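hey all, quick one before standup. I had two proteins in the batch that finished overnight and I want to keep them in one place so we stop losing track of which output belongs to which input. First protein below, input sequence then structure tokens straight from the run.
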Amino acid sequence: MKKILLLVFVGCSTMAMTQVTEGEKDLVSVSKDTVDGWKKGGYYALNGSQVSLTNWVAGGQNSIAINSLFGLYANLKKGNMTWENSFDFGYGIMNQSRNIFQTDGDKWIKTDDRIDITSKYGQKASKKWYYAGLMNFRTQSTAGYDYGIDDVTEISGFLAPAYLLGALGMDYKPNDKFSLFVAPLTSKFTFVNDTILANAGSFGVQGAEIDPISGIYTPGRKLRTEFGGYMRMQYKTKLAENISFTTKLDLFSNYLNNPERIDVNWENLLEIKLWKFLSATITTHLIYDDDIDITTSDNDGNGTGRGPRVQFKEVFGLGLSWKFDQ
């Protein structure tokens, strides 16, 4: 009997020790997720496609397309304070020619070009709300052309335009997947660092003027300042073990000029992991800015009007991808 009791005691002790050890592991795991400090990481994707046709009666054109995505993030948590920083860069080019191996004289056409830098600081106000301030900077890296008209006249370029936004408000973060930043106090600066584009009044800046009486010439301004309200919604989740989805929506209303005409900037990214370093990505980007006038034309190239338009871009890519976290 004593031997049986001893065996039961040893067994119970072993089970208790095992449960304590497992509990400690869970506690350590939770502590790692909530511990203060930096979380850093990033991603890189390189996608490409190639089409070569020989005596292809269905028609078509030889082409090569390359698209790349690159991003970094560095987030700090310290007590009730959070500081989130991100850098996103995208660039894509395409070449169409009669002979895919002889592209002399053919031009590479830009299909994607964006630089986006964001920094957001928050101080906890309650369980799910933070007092927060946000800075965002957006531009492109190379010149852009309207290939529907010609491939010589620049319609955009580096810092033409560039947008700098500073906002103060509240950030709602119920979990790691979703955040909603609402800022009733926001300043937006539009830079057009190109004399020709500034004189033309592109991207909402004041264009050049000539006084009809005195003949005095006033060059266009390269800076426009707006004051209004801003909202940013961001959501990221895993739809499946190998499928991730991220969406980001920015809305801005200028209190001083047509506040009902809201600027929209909406980006989506769907990534399907096919293998360790192989993935398919679908990105969409929708922009509406009442201050950007866009010329439309018919099939013959004749202008049909000029004014604000919805801009939309969709890019599908299949290629190499790599993510890293620290």
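OK second protein, same deal, sequence then tokens:
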Amino acid sequence: MEALGRQQAAQARPGVVNAVVYNKGVRVADIDIDEAGEWARREGHVVWIGLYEPGAALLEQVRKQFSLHPLAIEDAAKAHQFPKLEEFDDSLFIVARTAQMQDGRTAFGETHLFVGPGYVVSVRHGASQSYASVRQRCEARAQHLSQGEDFIVYALLDFIVDNYFPVLDRINEQVDDIEDSILTTAALTQEVIEQLYALRRDLLRMRNAVAPLQDVCRRLERTDIVFINPVMRPHFRDVRDHLRRAAERIDTLRETLAFAFEAGLMNAQMQQTNISRRLAAWAAILAVPTAIAGIYGMNFEHMPELKWAYGYYAVLFVTFSICMILYWRFRRAGWL
């Protein structure tokens, strides 16, 4: 009952999603932020705190509990950070971008991780799925969770990266729809152009989220980061492999969009060329009666055809014949 009351009190506090302490991978108790530092200093215990868009007062409270660097706290409060890993004397500060689909568009958020001996604090901002499922999977695998804060960091990063792929799948569907639209209509409408640029912008933001995170995972594999157990380094290598696959898909989708845009431009140019050919062909055909009418409209006194009884019919016949010959030639050449 006491543990349940503490959990309800923690969840009722704005910004606090969960605050739990574990011992050898087993959940011990839901705790209050004010006692998190004391639990983290106990041998074999790990405190995992989840925050969502916390205020300055809550972040300052967390800082005091774990003696976090003020610069890291300042970055965590702004929520407009580039993916990175910063090392302090006794802690790590990791920034990762999150992505998910909202109303058919890609929405981005951020997750900041404070990692140190005996604690992990995750701070979510903006569009991001809850990490409750990550916590449940970790608690179901007590043997892995017993490895401590290393496994928690891996589980969170793996969850963030895995959520990139449903977003990329949805973008891929939208790219396919645009390709089909361009091939069927053979034209770039204003709506299609807006979709192209919106998708290219989203893919660029995805690229800016994925590429730096590869460097973060690469640094987590290094041997000089004392907080990372060598046993966990292959797990971060696996996350980096997933990031590389995501980066390759992003590059492929960007190239596909570029090709679709070029194809649309080529179709538009071909349509303009065909229209210009038709206009030129009809102009050449109409030039014949115009020229003949202009010649006989000059009112010269000595024009033999004017006094010929069949001159009018002959001129009409010649005009019509020349126009039909030109029409046949242009038609054969594909201009009409």
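Flagging for whoever picks this up: The two ends are 86 Å apart (CA to CA). The beta strands are 16-23, 26-30, 45-52, 84-87, 92-102, 105-116, 119-126.
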